[in-house]
């Protein structure tokens, strides 16, 4: 099954995504944690360390993949269970690959790679950040980033059998509720 799980900061989405990926893993099958975040500072280092601690003992093989998400299938068994955390970081890496450069085609690149992964891999859990609900006005570049993430999330939602939202420690199923509940 393919699942998109979105939510706000510190909503519990990463932990819940780990539970889902582990529940989907077949006996003896590979369990991959696809890490997309590139650390930019101490706060990022701590978040990465916290996520690693949270995964200890779960059986995940961590695969660092900050870009070119479609290429993940060349080094991993598509019959395994994948947890990709997160689309938000993946977009940042692809859209801003180096200082002073912006790739406005990053969303299309990611959607193409995700489409490949979602069609070829058996079980995938995608994590994304819900960054759309505030009423603030942002500069054009930030708005372009938010729009690109929305495009990626919409494409993923179409391809996934379940679309979930983590909010205040609860999970809301927007699509595929019965299939999602059957996993747990």
List the helices and strands and how they pair.
Blueprint (H helix, E strand, L loop, with lengths): L1 E6 L5 H12 L6 E5 L6 H14 L5 E4 L16 E5 L1 H9 L10 H15 L2 E7 L10 H20 L2 E6 L2 E6 L1 H7 L1
Parallel strand pairs: 1-5, 1-6, 2-3, 2-4, 4-5
Antiparallel strand pairs: 6-7
Helix pairs in contact: 3-4, 3-5, 4-5
User: What is the β-strand count?
Assistant: 7
Question: N- to C-terminal separation?
Answer: 12 Å
Order of strands, widest sheet: 3-2-4-5-1-6-7
Summed up, the helix count is 6
Low-pLDDT regions: none
- The helix content, as a percent range, equals 40-55%
Structural class: alpha/beta
Whole-number radius of gyration? 16 Å
Can you offer a commentary on this structure?
The model has no long low-confidence stretch (mean pLDDT 93). The two termini are 12 Å apart. This protein is of the alpha/beta class and 184 residues long. The chain is 42% helix and 21% strand. It contains six helices and seven strands. The longest helix has 20 residues, at 140-159.
């Amino acid at each position: 099954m393919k699942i998109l799980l979105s939510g706000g900061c510190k909503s519990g989405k990463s932990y819940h995504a780990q539970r889902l990926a582990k529940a989907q893993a077949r006996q003896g099958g590979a369990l991959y944690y696809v890490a997309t975040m590139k650390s930019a500072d101490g706060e990022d280092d701590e978040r990465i360390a916290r996520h690693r601690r949270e995964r200890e003992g779960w059986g995940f093989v961590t695969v660092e993949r900050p870009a070119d998400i479609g290429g993940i299938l060349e080094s991993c068994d598509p019959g395994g269970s994948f947890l990709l955390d997160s689309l938000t970081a993946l977009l940042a890496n692809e859209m801003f690959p180096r200082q002073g450069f912006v790739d406005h085609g990053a969303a299309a690149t990611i959607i193409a790679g995700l489409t490949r992964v979602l069609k070829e891999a058996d079980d995938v859990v995608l994590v994304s950040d819900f960054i759309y609900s505030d009423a603030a006005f942002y500069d054009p570049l930030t708005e372009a980033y938010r729009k690109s993430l929305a495009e990626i999330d919409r494409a993923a939602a179409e391809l996934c059998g379940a679309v979930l939202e983590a909010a205040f420690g609860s999970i809301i199923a927007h699509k595929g509720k019965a299939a999602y509940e059957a996993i747990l």
